[in-house]
Amino acid sequence: MWPLVVLLLLASASCGSAQLILNKTKPVEYTNCNKTVVIPCFVSNVEATTLDDLYLNWKFGNENVLTFVGSQRTSTTGNNFSSASIVPEALLEGTASLKLDKSDAVPGNYTCEVTELSREGEAIIELKYRVVNWFSPNENILIIIFPMLAILLFWGQFGVVSKYLFLFLYMF
Ligand SMILES: *[C@@H]1O[C@H](CO)[C@@H](O)[C@H](O)[C@H]1NC(C)=O
Ligand SMILES: *[C@@H]1O[C@H](CO)[C@@H](O)[C@H](O)[C@H]1NC(C)=O
Ligand SMILES: *[C@@H]1O[C@H](CO)[C@@H](O)[C@H](O)[C@H]1NC(C)=O
Ligand SMILES: *[C@@H]1O[C@H](CO)[C@@H](O)[C@H](O)[C@H]1NC(C)=O
């Protein structure tokens, strides 16, 4: 009985104090216009004053995206994410955000896992791709109307449809 109680106490103690708190982040979006994509990850209670105590791991499903080993100051990227990078110094301020070229970005859920000595925490951030129209709906209307006007005016030069053109313009 007693060993069990002690174990439980130890477990709850380590849960209470040994967690890094990572901010909950809304899904981030990118479009065809983004050259690079930044997936945010913030730790709000970093205490380390040197990178030696920090370890960071970004994953996409089971795939490794980037591993940063603070004590060695090295970043290793996964095969499919060769453009992945972080700013190591920013880790000390709690920023573990990941930067990727658009060509390496895959929509889905990314896991940011930060370890500081014996404390650790993780967050899942969803990256979404959004298709954008080049032009706003209003501009689309103009794009359709201008060639039509041009054609009508061209015909109008020959007097063939100038009557209709005037009718058309009166309608507005
Ligand atoms: C993270 O969350 C904490 C508490 O909610 C807040 O004070 C802090 O500004 C946030 N940090 C960032 C970088 O969003
Ligand atoms: C994509 O670019 C937009 C506009 O520059 C920016 O607001 C957004 O954060 C970028 N998305 C990502 C995931 O980096
Ligand atoms: C890289 O992506 C390809 C195609 O999406 C996938 O088949 C492969 O398993 C990925 N590589 C790794 C190391 O997961
Ligand atoms: C990412 O995770 C969220 C919450 O668990 C889920 O709703 C969403 O469908 C996931 N997205 C993908 C692309 O798996």
TrEMBL record:
Keywords recorded for this protein, A-Z: Membrane, Signal, Transmembrane, Transmembrane helix
Transmembrane segments: 141-170
Cellular component, GO, one term: extracellular exosome
Domain Ig-like stretches: 3-126
InterPro entries in the cross-refs: CD47 (IPR006704), CD47_Vset (IPR013270), Ig-like_dom (IPR007110), Ig-like_fold (IPR013783)
GO-annotated biological processes: positive regulation of cell-cell adhesion; positive regulation of inflammatory response; positive regulation of phagocytosis
Signal peptide interval: 1-18
Gene Ontology molecular function: any one: thrombospondin receptor activity
Protein name: CD47 molecule
Lineage per the UniProt record: Eukaryota, Metazoa, Chordata, Craniata, Vertebrata
